[in-house]
Design brief:
alpha+beta; FAD/NAD(P)-binding domain; D-Amino Acid Oxidase, Chain A, domain 2; 12 helices; 16 strands; 20% strand; binds flavin-adenine dinucleotide; binds iron/sulfur cluster
Length: 405
Amino acid sequence: FNDRGAVKGVATGEMGRGKDGEPKAAYEPGMELHAKYTVFAEGCRGHLGKQLIKQYALDHDASPQHYGIGLKELWRIDPALHQPGLVVHGAGWPLSEHGASGGAFLYHLEDCQVALGLIVDLNYDNPYLSPFDELQRFKTHSKIAPTLAGGERLSYGARAITKGGFNSLPKMSLPGAFIVGCDAGTLNFAKIKGTHTAMKSGMLAADTIMEVLLDGDPGGKDHTHYDSHLRSSWLYPELKAARNFGPALHKFGPYIGGAFNYIDQNWLRGKMPFTLKDHSRDHASLKESSEVSPIDYPKPDGVLTFDKNSSVYLTNTNHEEDQPVHLQLANSDIPLRTNLPKWAEPAQRYCPAGVYEIVGEEAEQRFQINAQNCIHCKTCDIKDPSQNITWVTPEGGGGPSYSAM
Ligand SMILES: Cc1cc2nc3c(=O)[nH]c(=O)nc-3n(C[C@H](O)[C@H](O)[C@H](O)COP(=O)(O)OP(=O)(O)OC[C@H]3O[C@@H](n4cnc5c(N)ncnc54)[C@H](O)[C@@H]3O)c2cc1C
Ligand code: SF4
């Protein structure tokens, strides 16, 4: 930030700090990159975007942001079962059995490949729910399992999505910067599509910056007229038409909410004459573990269903081991003192990579963070009921390296 409180650029990460936080022999400090305007586009729950939204109260007039976790697998299937171009969408099962909501997809791609996945809304209330295991269950459905028979799983991945849409969109300009794409929350949740909207929001930021620079702007200003560019583009009416989709599901559940959405989206094209708002926060939705029954997920068979370890292996995740843990706890006592007794420490289940474990018995118990397995989905930063975990960027180059995802 400059001395007038405007963003003046970004700093690249440091390299070569050890686990203990001390510089190692090969330590290199980060480099500051200054600009008249900086565009933040880190995707869902951006580490910097999150801080900027808070610091400039950019979400002051918006509903709380909502999130889902999207889990995906890529398979090569039997050529006899391949139907290139076939798109299958699902809602309800398996999440409905555990009082949760979300959607599923299976797309037949080229070369006998299919991409399939499950989006789990992160406002679920059962702390025993495991999004990863729900994806494994989804594959056992009678409409899905036959397609995968004799096939081979090629890849696995997971990433949170920002799905609050129109109602949760923060102000996207701030002094010296813009926040675009899923960092702000431009995904159209009714379609679960966010690529085209992210690109458009970035193009509008580029247009705005070009316009003011050609006018001799010295930088560091808050160009609130970005908002009028947004309103006069196709992006605004598209997001507005989808504004009731998430709140309807959250308020009325998958069946009545689904019927509401069918009428609103297909008959009225998003022109329902009122707006539903959802003021709840995803991290505050968990019931205490004493109020619910544990969920007993079936053991993976290693053919159709798999465990977390073999799945993380397919993500090609790699982190320098001797570096500070990039999953930071504000208070290291909270996992065992608060989260374990109240919510059976849900991080053990919502993390799709098995990063968080409670190890040891009774007095020896400790909360273990296997940070090297982290696939950077950001779910812990969102769903921790105590809001105690902050995901920060690890040393450059670390993280999953997805192939063909
Ligand atoms: C399972 C799943 C399926 C989906 N399917 C579809 C679909 O079929 N169609 C569709 O349109 N959308 C789909 N989406 C949504 C789509 O992926 C996103 O809406 C879109 O990628 C958002 O684009 P973005 O540029 O805002 O963010 P991203 O694509 O997430 O890009 C952000 C980039 O910034 C990098 N980054 C983050 N933080 C930093 C930092 N501090 N410093 C430097 N770099 C950083 C990240 O590594 C990443 O490369 C899907 C999402 C999921 C999870
Ligand atoms: S540690 Fe957090 S960001 Fe990393 S994979 Fe697990 S839930 Fe996702």
